[in-house]
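quick one before i forget lol
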Amino acid sequence: MMIALTVILVLLTYYVPFLSGFGMFVCGIPMAALAARNGLKAALPAVLGIFAVSVIVMGSPLAALSTVLMSVLPGLAAGYCMGKDKPFFATLSVCCLTLCAGWLLELFAVDKLLTGQGVEEMIKEAAKQFEDMMNTVIGGYASKSADGAKLAETMKAMVAAAEYMIKLYFPSMVILMSAAVGYAVVRLSGFVLRRTKIKDADTVLFSQMKAPRSMAYTAVALYVAMLFMKSGSPVWSVTANAVFVLFALIGVCGLSLADYKLRAKIRSGGARAAIYAAVFFFGGFLFIIAAYVLIFMGLFDSTRNYRGISD
């Protein structure tokens, strides 16, 4: 039954465009239930069966492999850990590592075989397409005045800078996307397991997430060390990614503190999530200020522990 349900969800997200974005979050839930109840001995053969059926229906082994890597295995990993009564953050870590491995295989193997392009080529192509689009928009103005030519040069420099930043922080983006999707998969899987009475899985509410003191100290120490490194060197690039990831996670914990305070006034979690999404998508410059504020909130909370949460 779990195999059939997973295949139905996979096909829905594959053939119905507006559902494709939900595939990563829901397709692995039946496997989470199977792994929590019966363990890997039952779940792994089921994944092979799902892969075989997906190949037949989709007509592409690579597309089926991509679906299994990104949508099915993370749920299986989360369900297995919950079935073994692992703590919430241990389950989250395993799920995130599974997603990271899936992203890397997807980007460096599957996409290379499907499109013939690696990650660097895809970034370059996207930057070139954006630059061509902007040249089309301002082309007439740029050819008629000195200010227009200067604007075109500025736009070209901005595209080059954006391309460099994306390449530099690409590992951080993969890790943070894996963490975000992993958290959603673990929470959804835990909710289903509790409602179906398969397992009373350990969970941590978003408003109860706090950065350990060691994380805050490490982030600050690496940031200070990065200031004395040669910009552009391999060590500097690795450190920059580590700093980016750590401060992003600390900022999320700062948002958790804000959510803890806000939930006393706005009980609806959906309403609070809508507020955060509105600031993120429509805040503009306000979002940048909010991000810095949240990072400082997360740093202070990690040392002051305003909510009385143990590390």
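fyi Residues 193 and 199 are 5 Å apart (CA to CA).
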